[in-house]
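Colleagues,

For the teaching module next term, I've prepared a clean inverse folding example: a structure given as tokens, and then the sequence designed for it. I'd like students to try predicting residues themselves before seeing the answer, so please don't circulate the second half yet.
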């Protein structure tokens, strides 16, 4: 428990880090306006291929550790109603899904990624985890939510229309779809079976965006967030955690790795954006969400091999779709 408490502590002040970084001339290139006259960025298919290669290189799964802090940071996943549904966007090797499945034995997770390699790794990770009764409540599917949107079996046009109508009317929302009783006992063994049903999954109660939005090009983020908004039930929560401005990994990027303002391309073709709280707020409230929590998580750790101190910055947020 002590290790978890230490992990969540505020080890340093973000504003002081900001002053220190911005007063360092050797780091000034990070904050200069970006020259828009630059080579064209990779296509979505090239982005997916880069992440495929990334997961092949890290096929042991050791690169991504199980996110044991998740249920402490997002306790709503433990206190939610029985049979709640979670959409995990950018599931990677399953390091986010696993603690949720461990923590609740009656929650259903729909997990997607743009990388087929990641989906295979997630499937293997869950299989060997020895978490009981996951076959009917863990469903993987391939999706790049920033370009293609989510499949209709997750929330069909009719259900999305009902969500909007209830919001506009400001009436209490009844989550069951018109076919709820008919579909109540239907087995949900995979996403393809959902596609054959008359309706759909009926939307989700939670969306998790855990270190995934930063991999999306900045100009595609608003439409990606609107997709998340569209499949959430009214009152549903979007749980967010991602790289923050002045994080150690941002400051390590060389000038030639910049592909936009606060946006970088790694040598392997994968990208990363570093968020400030104001940008996160604007992105989510601009898509219709209400802000519940938004803060920097500042953690100091030590590299065991070199003994060097590392200051990590993440942005933590909770956003709600209006009732």
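(Answer key — instructors only)
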């Amino acid at each position: 428990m002590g290790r978890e408490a230490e992990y969540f502590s505020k080890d340093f002040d973000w504003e002081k880090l900001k002053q220190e970084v911005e007063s360092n001339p050797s780091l000034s290139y990070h904050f200069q306006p970006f020259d828009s006259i630059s080579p064209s960025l990779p296509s979505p298919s090239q982005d997916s291929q880069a992440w495929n290669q990334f997961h092949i290189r890290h096929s042991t799964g050791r690169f991504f550790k199980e996110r044991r802090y998740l249920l402490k940071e997002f306790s709503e996943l433990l206190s939610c109603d029985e049979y709640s549904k979670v959409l995990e966007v950018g599931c990677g090797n399953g390091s986010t899904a696993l603690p949720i499945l461990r923590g609740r034995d009656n929650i259903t997770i729909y997990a997607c990624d743009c990388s087929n390699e990641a989906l295979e790794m997630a499937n293997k990770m869950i299989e060997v985890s020895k978490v009981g009764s996951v076959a009917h409540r863990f469903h993987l599917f391939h999706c790049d939510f920033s370009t293609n949107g989510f499949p209709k079996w997750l929330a069909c046009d009719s259900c999305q229309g009902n969500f909007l109508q209830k919001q506009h009317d400001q009436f209490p929302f009844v989550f069951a779809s018109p076919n709820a009783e008919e579909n109540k006992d239907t087995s949900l063994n995979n996403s393809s079976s959902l596609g054959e049903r008359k309706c759909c999954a009926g939307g989700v109660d939670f969306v998790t965006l855990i270190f995934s939005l930063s991999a999306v090009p900045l100009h595609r983020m608003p439409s990606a967030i609107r997709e998340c908004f569209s499949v959430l039930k009214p009152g549903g929560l979007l749980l967010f955690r991602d790289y923050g401005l002045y994080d150690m990994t941002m400051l390590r990027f060389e000038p030639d790795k910049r592909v936009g303002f606060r946006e970088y391309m790694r040598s392997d073709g994968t990208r990363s954006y570093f968020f400030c709280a104001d940008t996160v707020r604007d992105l989510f409230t601009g898509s219709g969400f209400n802000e519940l929590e938004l803060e920097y998580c500042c953690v100091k750790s030590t590299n065991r091999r070199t003994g060097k101190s590392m200051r990590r910055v993440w942005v933590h947020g909770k956003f709600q779709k209006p009732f």
